[in-house]
Amino acid sequence: KAKRRGRNTCQWYTEDLNRKVSERVSLRNALQQAIEQEQFELYFQPQMHGLSGRVIGVEALIRWHHPERGFIPPGDFIGLAEDTGQIIPVSDWVLATACRVAKQLNALGHGPITMAVNVSPMHFQRPGFLKAIEQVLEESGLAPHLLELELTEGVLMDSAEQAIQALQGLRQLGVHVALDDFGTGFSSLSYLKRLPINRIKIDRSFVRDVITDRHDAAIIDGVVAMAGKMGLEVLVEGVETAEQFGYLAQRRCDYFQGYYFARPMPLSDLRAFLASPPAIAAPEALMPSS
Ligand code: C2E
Ligand code: MG
Ligand code: MG
Ligand code: MG
Q1: ipTM beyond 0.85?
Q2: Whose CA is nearest to atom 43 of ligand 1?
Q3: What distance in angstroms lies between residue 169's CA and the mean position of ligand 1's atoms?
C-alpha cells in the first residue's frame, strides 16, 4: 500500500514538474509577444522629502497587461526574463520610456523630479551598459543627475571589481545610484564603503514593525547613522502608515516612499498628483506622544 502511494506521489510530482516547465515555456513565449507588441506600461510611485512634503522623484515600476491573462506583476516575470535573457529588451524599453517621461515631467515645471529605474543584474553586467545609459540620456535629453539607477546588493557583489568600475563610470556621467532593498542582502559594511553610490533604500521589511520591534528600530538607527557619516542619503521604502512616517522622520530618515504617500500609478495620474500633491502632515504631528 505504501509502495503504491509512493508511486502515486512520484507521478504527482512528475506531473507537477511538467506543468511548471510548460508554464515557463508558455510564459516565455508570451513574454516574447509582450516585447514585440509592447504590452508593458510603466507605473510611477512618488518619493517624498519628509520635512517639506515635496515630491523629489518617482520610481518607475513595470506593469504587464497580458491580453488574456490580465495583469501580471513584475515579481512573476522579471526573474524568468533574467533567465532567458529577455530582460535585455525589456530593460531597454523601461529605460528609454522612463527617461522620456522624466524629461517631460521636468519640462512641466514640477521639477526637479528624479526618475528612479530598477536595473537588473544581467543588464548592469552587460559590456555595453554604460554606453547604453549614455545613449538613452542623449536621446531623451534628460539631465544625467535626474536619472537614478536602483541596484541591489546582489548585483554589486557578484563581480565586485567590475561593479565598482561600472559605478565609477556612472558617477562620471553624473547619473545617480541607489542601493535598493538595503539590508536584505549580505554585503559587508567595509564593502559598502568602497561603493560610489548616492543613496540607500532601506527595505520595507524593516519598516513594517518598526514601531513595536526594537530590533528593526535599532537597524534603522544604525543605517541612518552610518549613511550620514558616509555622505549617503537614506530613503525608506514601504511606509504605509502615518505612525511609521512620524516615527521614521523622528529617527532622521529624510526620504520616503510607500502607500501612505501614494501607490504606484499610471502617468496620467502622476501628472495630476504632481500638479496638486496632497498635503502630508508634518511628521512631528504624527508621533504618538513621546
Ligand atoms: P522594488 O524595486 O523594491 O520596488 C518596490 C516594490 O514595493 C514595488 O512592487 C511597489 O509597488 C511596492 N511598494 C511600494 N510601496 C509599498 C508599500 O507601502 N507597501 C508594500 N507592501 N509595497 C509597496 P512592484 O511594482 O510589484 O515591483 C516588485 C519588484 O519588481 C521591484 O521591487 C523590482 O525589484 C522589480 N521591478 C519592478 N519594475 C522593474 C523594472 O522595470 N525592471 C526591473 N529589472 N525590475 C523591476
Ligand atoms: Mg526599486
Ligand atoms: Mg526595493
Ligand atoms: Mg526589489
Answers
A1: yes
A2: 118
A3: 26
